[in-house]
Amino acid sequence: VVQDLTQKEFGSVVYGVFEEFFWRVLFNNFTFIH
Length: 34
Known about the structure:
Structural class: mainly alpha
Distance between the termini: 49 Å
Mean pLDDT: 85
Strand content: under 5%
C-alpha cells in the first residue's frame, strides 16, 4: 500500500511538471507566432 501510494504521488508530480512544461512551451510558441 505504501509503495503504491508513493508510486501514485511520484506519477502525480511527474504529471504536474510535464503539464507545466507543456503549457510553457505552448505559451512560448503562441507568443512567438504572434
